[in-house]
Amino acid sequence: MELRQLRYFIKAKELLNFTEAADSLNISQSTLSQQIKQLEDELDIPLFNRIGKRIALTEAGQLFYNYALQSVNRANNGKLMLQELNQLQAGSLNIGVTYGLRYLLTPALMRFLRKFPKVKVQVVFGTSEELRHRLLSLELDILLTFEEVVHDAHLTYELLFESPLCLVSSAKDPVAQHDQVLLKDVVALPLVLPSNGFSTREFINNTLLQNKLSPNIALEINDIPTLLDLVKAGNWYTILAKTTVKGSGLSAVPIKGKNMVRKAMIITMTDVYEKKAVGQFRKFMLDEVKRR
Amino acid sequence: MELRQLRYFIKAKELLNFTEAADSLNISQSTLSQQIKQLEDELDIPLFNRIGKRIALTEAGQLFYNYALQSVNRANNGKLMLQELNQLQAGSLNIGVTYGLRYLLTPALMRFLRKFPKVKVQVVFGTSEELRHRLLSLELDILLTFEEVVHDAHLTYELLFESPLCLVSSAKDPVAQHDQVLLKDVVALPLVLPSNGFSTREFINNTLLQNKLSPNIALEINDIPTLLDLVKAGNWYTILAKTTVKGSGLSAVPIKGKNMVRKAMIITMTDVYEKKAVGQFRKFMLDEVKRR
DNA sequence: TTTCTTAAATCGGTTTTATCGATTGATGTT
DNA sequence: AACATCAATCGATAAAACCGATTTAAGAAA
């Protein structure tokens, strides 16, 4: 039993005339006759009564019609549904994002949703490590974060923008007056750093290791807004990309040195089918960067 | 898109391994790979992500799965339904019957329904003419009546039994004492006959025409039980097959002469598919005749 | 009746395609 | 580095869908 035969049967039932049905199906009457017969053989019961040159549905044909129709319709509807998905009139988009990129995400996301209101978007905040893991397990479609220390062969990286690594302090702190600071001065200050797993923390760990410096870590915390609140209180300092601090009212003084810069990236999986929604959203993000 | 491809996709989705799925489907891995690819091409979207040697469903595959499953299931269920029909665990049986054969019908019908309780039976009483018309238009599956004067080429006739044509009278009537009567004596009596359209009436018309006799018709009526009541009252006589009178308490004296006999028949349409239910019911009827 | 028309079934041959085995390429494992 | 595993690809083959022509049968028309 094949959909082709069901389609033939449906048309023959509707026209009750093999010759016309065959015309309508763009096949020969011979073919239609054979395919119907084959279907009847498989079902082990005639679907049509051949009365002279007329055909009429048997009870079996009458009963089977609804099943045939529904089977064909389910398949057709599945195809239509996928067409909608291709035109972004359906489907979902799962975005992973680190806190530092929220200011870029929100306007791009708003424009995307206005254009494709049928797409269900889920945004997941988390550490780079956690989000990268979820991207690799296909839980996420796209990841917005800072560049990793090591690249993963299964991932594709696309640069969004660069942001200098900064010493972050209360706006009233004397350090805020400086144009730039040295890394060795930074490690002397009491620091509140993001926990391991955050991309900037991994970057800091790596940089300090290379410079043989060890930081004065007062506190580690896995929530960036809370971390910023603590710094705002004035007792502690932290190290973050300039973008991350934007809009918080805190001071961010660039740290002097080569490579003292974070690269914001769009990360997706290599060689997996890229949803239309991902492609579109990527464009919105790149466009958002250009606007600034 | 064909059911075959949907079946392949479903299995591949369930096992998430083309090699195993192909084994389970008794096809080569090569074939499965090609058919899935063909399906994806037609749907214009990948159903699987090929990550290295692993495969995983795409969003499209996930969404399409339910449609594929339902399409295949509808077709399978249709086939199963027809199997039940073939085993008389479903379906309908429409029986046309003339009043004269009710005594044979009821016991056969009761046995049939006990054996095939799932079959929906409809019994239609009527004149032979009316019932034959409904049989020809496929409204009836089988017809139980007396032999027609002329046979229809589209109908198949099978003898059930023969019953002598009788002069019917009240049991107290002097005529009831006779062993037989002559046709010319019958036409002298005041008769109540079934209306035209009843097979016995057609037979009587024909017989009298051939014998150049004209009857003394007091009343024509199209309801046999009422006709019998009138005869029972004693003022009138009628002509019917002996079987028709059985159990009514009336006297039935055979009419002398060649061919003064009615043939009870099973009539079906020639060359139309005979339902399993019809075949079975026919057997029950013939069996019922043998029992007597 | 006979003829004519129409519709479905059948037949033989052709084209299409589903399928296979073998091979390749790529990946993860020992 | 060698090996095992899995999906993709290739070329060949077998299966099937399909067509045109013909046959068969039934209504319709002459």
The CATH class designation of the largest domain in chain A is Alpha Beta
Give the N-to-C terminal Cα separation of chain A: 60 Å
The best one-word shape of chain A is rod-shaped
Kindly report the CATH topology of the largest domain in chain A.
D-Maltodextrin-Binding Protein, domain 2
Helical element count of chain A? 11
Strand portion of chain A: 15-25%
Structural class by secondary-structure content of chain A: alpha/beta
Keywords (chains A, B): DNA-binding, Transcription, Transcription regulation
Protein name (chains A, B): LysR family transcriptional regulator
Family (chains A, B): Belongs to the LysR transcriptional regulatory family.
GO molecular function (chains A, B): DNA binding; DNA-binding transcription factor activity
Topology readout:
The structure is a homodimer of 292-residue chains.
Chain A: H1 3-15, H2 18-25, H3 29-43, E1 48-51, E2 54-57, H4 59-86, E3 92-97, H5 102-115, E4 120-125, H6 128-136, E5 142-146, E6 155-169, H7 183-186, E7 191-194, H8 199-210, E8 217-221, H9 224-232, E9 238-241, H10 242-245, E10 251-254, E11 261-269, H11 276-290
Parallel strand pairs in A: 3-4, 3-5, 7-8
Antiparallel strand pairs in A: 1-2, 5-11, 6-9, 6-10, 6-11
Chain A binds a DNA duplex (30 and 30 nucleotides) through residues 4, 17-19, 27-35, 37, 50-55.
